[in-house]
Each structure stands twice: as structure tokens, then as C-alpha cells.
């Protein structure tokens, strides 16, 4: 079970959603790819 929703955007705090292995902020677009070696 995985909860990928509800992550805040590090730039504005808006709730992001996960799409095609990327975390997407509705205001900033793609913020981070899930293959990046860090987690915020």
C-alpha cells in the first residue's frame, strides 16, 4: 500500500500529486522525478 498523494510542494506548499513517476505541483508543474536519489 502506497500513499503518494498529499506531499507538499517544496516551493509553495500546495498538495502535489504523482503522475507517471513524477510529483506534480498544480502551480509549478513537475517538481521531482521519483527516480531522483533524494526524498523531500
From TrEMBL:
InterPro entries per record: HVO_2523-like
Organism domain of life: Archaea
Record-linked NCBIfam families: HVO_2523
Protein name: Small CPxCG-related zinc finger protein
Organism: Natronomonas pharaonis (strain ATCC 35678 / DSM 2160 / CIP 103997 / JCM 8858 / NBRC 14720 / NCIMB 2260 / Gabara)
Amino acid at each position: 500500500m502506497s500513499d503518494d498523494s498529499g506531499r507538499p510542494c517544496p516551493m509553495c506548499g500546495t498538495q502535489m500529486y504523482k503522475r507517471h513517476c513524477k510529483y506534480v505541483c498544480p502551480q509549478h508543474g513537475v517538481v521531482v522525478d521519483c527516480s531522483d536519489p533524494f526524498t523531500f
